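Predict the structure of Brf1 TBP-binding domain-containing protein.
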Amino acid sequence: HDESETLSDIDDEEVDLYIHDEEGKHIKKILWETANREYLGEQAAKEAAAAANKKAFEAKFENCSEDILAARELAASSTEVVAKSR
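Done. Here is the predicted structure for Brf1 TBP-binding domain-containing protein.
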């Protein structure tokens, strides 16, 4: 057994430096969110845009014929098969 994988050379005091209690986790989360506010905003905007695009796309098919719906399902399943084959 490889000694370097067991972490036996690390003492409990050093481990305690890396393990946070609930308050420590909360503080670290706030610090990370503050430091990455711009990134989080960009991600939220991307998610909102994707949701709006999906909703608009689906609205186009609300009152379409069965043939159009079948073609749409076939296209979606074909895309899925191609993606899985890569």
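The helical segments are 12-18, 22-35, 37-60, 66-85.
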